[in-house]
Specification:
The chain is of the alpha+beta class. 33% of the residues lie in helices and 23% in strands. About 5% of the residues have low confidence.
Length: 904
């Protein structure tokens, strides 16, 4: 009995201690800095008042009786700084679950207690990575991976998580809309932005601080790249998302990153570590991380007027040549001394300063200068031509110490992970099964086309096709599905597609107008949601039974508030979200207007090149100018020989100003003789002057420039035609032509691309009689290329740089076949994977692929020519009949295919 009493006494002591600990834990602060906590509380109350229209959806979660103090403060932090898209499109239970799983990882993972509060707050708790659609990936990943990594060190766990990501996703280029992590997993592929979004989400799910890094544009070639940094052992490390290496701080982009002029990261919330921020706002900061990757220099820009007086609050943009435009890496306002500063790399930049509609610019060579002065004196209107030679930084050597054993283990893991992913991809619906789906609206070939494109979303696509299998007058299932992007086909649920399918009524408007302005579910780069029927019902209530476009615009001007800077991750707010929140940014406002028009059966669209909104009324397309808060401007249709009726027909636009009428002008683009059809973004761009800077139009894949001479009808204004041509080392010959477009005038502009000067550089000599093993047969180089030069490329088909090269070769198939020589793709044996199959590419007939046994040919070239190869695949050479290496390209670069053809 005595022992029983003692046992009960001890038991209750233990229970009491656990209760006290639990009680203390539930009442402990998430934010221990009381001043920061007070600031968050203030900002939360402001945001709460702003989002009052969705108070029920967002804030009733605070009534949860199980809500702890830590959870409450974490939620307040998220609400205080989240972008408008998240306030508009998600509810409180979603954010509370994100908070609870973040704390779950902190409590259950062995490293959770070692993460500093500020690091956890900004880089574990935060649910958003970039502009992706949000989902529940955090919960799924935690439950899947916790047992797999819980006995590892933090850094080893990060490597293992990246291996898991590689099991699920491999690189493939895609459009700019970022799929949600679970949608990326379902597809099995993603571009670098989606791979890094998945990897950061997975790291944070497991309580490992992570952030997405961007080089917004490369300096040595076109395009950009995103990757991941993880925090461990008290510092940040980088890795290639879904591209595992044996160690941290290793990636195929290690050397290209040494040539970067900017690497940055957007940080959610008020960030206290402001030592190297390019931008600090009330909601977020942009951190400059370039010094983690290469040598840097802080440059100082002084902005003055013509008399040398410093200009305060002038905007200085640090521009890098890329994709035939000068892209702003950062934008900084000058201080009271007219000074703006930026830390950047050792290359060339174009510095652009503006204020009150005037501008000035100056090229800076950061290798030689750390200070320059810009005089703001230019006004729009002067016509002239400017030439620049833009040179990127030199590559820096990277020393990575990895044992052969570590390399071999990693390669085996990669091959095993490839096999897992390939096995999953092989479960997608096959052609024979797809063709058993009967539809009166689609042929069996069309059914298979859409099922095949839907990839891991095939069940939803099959469901939608079956729901709309019966023939019905005015139902255009094929045209509807064709209007979707490939990414939509891969991640849109059937019920969302069903919400958007409509019926054509020929008595209302022509079919091409319906196909452009009513039929598509997609408007811009937003994620598809159900809004068509929802908006129809709501707007009929708000307006009247037979509303007009003018009434809709008046209602929007009265009820929806524009907050241009508050949606800082640039994830478009859904049309439904805009309606509910009644707050929006410019881009989401335009999407909402088009959606509202379509919901009310008014044809409308958002032009992808100019970002102008058009609506069909009075038998013509009308421009809607929200910026001037006026009714739509009339735009008569006029045929300009466009190749597709699904695009708007541009013509005369009339703007009423008293008794005067101002009409658009026409720009006719011609080409040089050697360029049959120049590529937009690769060789040229067109930009319009707006508020002190030129804004580039996005004519990529636009039928208006598919046939040359091309005719564009543009608003009167000041314009710039930018062209460029790159050498293989990244140096660019740039040409800028400034010109005016006047009302009712037609001007002709030739797309003049500066010619590269032959440098006659040789990269060594090899014996043309050297015999190489090609598909089991030894053949001499001279025998292998009887007439033309030989292109040899050593590739790693598992990595993104090689995939860009292979896509280039496929895209330029006709050009390489016209050239007629042979292209030899050689895979080192350790880089070979069974999942690589030439049949997946539509290559030219002159492409041959083989394994380079024991890397013999690679070793021979490197030893004979004393080339310093840094394992940066692909490695390309052009070999002449005499054995001279006349061209070399190593590692990542966009446009290698065009560069090869120019060199040949």
């Amino acid at each position: 009995m005595k022992h029983d009493i003692q046992f009960l006494s001890d038991y209750f002591k233990i229970v009491l201690v656990l209760f006290i600990i639990s009680s203390c834990h539930s009442h402990s602060h998430f934010i221990t800095d009381k001043y920061y906590r007070k600031q968050v509380k203030t900002d939360f109350e402001i945001r709460k008042k702003m989002a009052n229209n969705r108070a029920k959806e967002l804030f009733t979660v605070f009534d949860d009786k199980k809500l702890t103090l830590k959870e409450k403060e974490a939620l307040e932090f998220l609400y205080a700084y989240m972008p408008l898209s998240d306030l508009a499109d998600y509810d409180g239970s979603f954010f509370l679950n994100q908070v609870r799983y973040a704390f779950k990882a902190q409590n259950e993972m062995p490293w959770g207690k070692d993460i500093p509060e500020e690091i956890f707050r900004h880089f574990v708790l935060v649910y958003r990575v970039n502009n992706e659609n949000l989902d529940t990936a955090r919960y799924m990943i935690f439950d899947l991976l916790k047992d797999r990594i819980k006995k590892m060190s933090m850094n080893d766990a990060a490597l293992e998580i990246n291996h898991w990501c590689h099991e699920k996703v491999s690189y493939r280029p895609a459009d700019s809309r970022t799929s949600a992590p679970l949608a990326t997993i379902r597809t099995g592929f993603g571009r670098c932005g989606e791979e890094s979004t998945l990897a950061v989400t997975a790291m944070r799910a497991m309580g490992i601080p992570a952030r997405q890094c961007y080089t917004p544009r490369w300096a040595h070639c076109d395009d950009n790249h995103a990757w991941v940094e993880v925090w461990g052992d008290g510092k940040w490390h980088y890795l290639g998302a879904c591209e595992p290496e044996p160690k941290l701080d290793m990636a195929w982009f290690s050397i290209p990153a040494t040539r970067a002029m900017m690497v940055h990261c957007k940080v959610f919330g008020k960030y206290k570590n402001l030592s190297e921020c390019n931008l600090i706002t009330e909601l977020y900061a942009v951190v400059n991380m370039l010094s983690n990757y290469t040598d840097t220099k802080k440059i100082r820009v002084i902005v003055t007027d013509l008399f040398g007086t410093p200009i305060k609050d002038a905007t200085v943009k640090f521009k890098l040549y890329n994709y035939a435009e000068y892209f702003s890496l950062a934008s900084i306002n000058t201080d009271e001394n007219g000074v703006g500063m930026l830390t950047t790399g050792y290359g060339d930049l174009l510095l652009w300063a503006s204020k009150n509609g005037k501008f000035g610019y100056q090229k800076i060579d950061v290798r030689l200068q750390d200070e320059t002065t810009i005089i703001i004196e230019n006004e729009p209107g002067r016509e002239y031509i400017e030439f620049f030679e833009m040179i990127p930084p030199e590559a820096r050597p990277i020393k990575i110490e990895v044992t052969q054993e570590q390399e071999d283990i990693n390669n085996k893991c990669l091959q095993y992970e490839d096999s897992l992913r390939f096995a999953y991809l092989n479960t997608f619906m096959k052609e024979d099964k797809a063709k058993t789906i009967i539809s009166e609206n689609l042929t069996s070939e069309q059914v298979w086309m859409f099922i095949n494109k839907s990839e891991g979303n095939y069940e939803e696509m099959a469901k939608f096709i079956k729901q709309n299998s019966v023939k019905k007058s005015g139902l255009f299932v094929f045209d509807f599905l064709k209007s979707l992007s490939n990414k939509d086909l891969c991640d849109a649920p059937a019920d969302i597609l069903q919400d958007h399918i409509t019926v054509f009524h020929p008595e209302k408007y022509p079919f091409d107008v319906y196909a452009k302005g009513i039929l598509p579910a997609r408007i811009a780069n937003e994620g598809l949601v159900m809004w068509r029927n929802y908006l129809h019902c709501k707007l009929i209530e708000d307006l009247e039974i037979n509303p007009t476009i003018s009434q809709l615009i008046s209602w929007m001007n009265k009820n929806i508030t524009l907050l241009p800077d508050d949606n800082y991750y640039l994830a478009p707010i859904s049309p439904k979200g805009v309606y509910e929140l009644k707050l929006t940014d410019n881009h989401s406002r335009n999407i909402f207007f088009v959606a509202a028009c379509r919901a009310l059966n008014f044809p409308a669209y958002l032009d992808g090149a100019s970002n102008q909104v058009f609506v069909w009324e009075k038998e013509m397309w009308n421009i809607v100018d929200f910026e001037q808060n006026k009714e739509p401007k009339m735009q008569k249709t006029e045929s300009l020989n466009y190749s597709e009726l699904l695009y708007a027909k541009y013509g005369t636009k009339i703007k009423e100003e008293g008794n005067t009428k101002t009409e658009v002008g026409k720009l006719i683009l011609n080409t040089q003789k050697e360029f049959v059809k120049p590529e937009y973004w690769t060789q040229y761009t067109i930009a319009k002057y707006v508020d002190g800077d030129f804004v580039t139009f996005d004519y990529e894949e636009d039928p208006r420039i598919e046939i040359f001479p091309a005719t564009l009808c543009l608003e009167p204004g000041y314009y710039m035609l930018s062209t460029g041509n790159r050498y293989s080392d990244g140096e660019t010959l740039s040409r800028l032509e400034f010109f005016n477009i006047e009302p009712e005038k037609t001007i002709n502009k030739q797309i003049t691309i500066r010619e590269l000067v032959a440098r006659n550089k040789k990269y060594g000599e090899i014996d043309a009689n050297y015999k190489i093993d090609i598909m089991g047969k030894y053949t001499s180089i001279i025998e292998f290329m009887p007439e033309k030069e030989l292109i040899v490329s050593f590739i790693d088909p598992t990595r993104e740089p090689t995939k860009h090269l292979l896509n280039d070769i496929e895209r330029l198939k006709r050009d390489f076949e016209k050239w007629g020589g042979k292209i030899l793709l050689l895979i080192p044996p350790e880089k070979y994977t069974a999942t690589f199959d030439l049949k997946n590419y539509n290559f030219p007939e002159n492409v041959i692929c083989s394994i380079d046994n024991n890397s013999n040919f690679l070793k021979y070239i490197l030893s004979s020519t004393k080339q310093d190869f840094k394992d940066a695949y692909p490695l390309l050479f052009i070999i002449s009949k005499e054995g001279s290496l006349t061209f070399k390209s190593e590692g990542y670069r966009i446009g290698t295919g065009e560069l090869l053809l120019k060199s040949l």
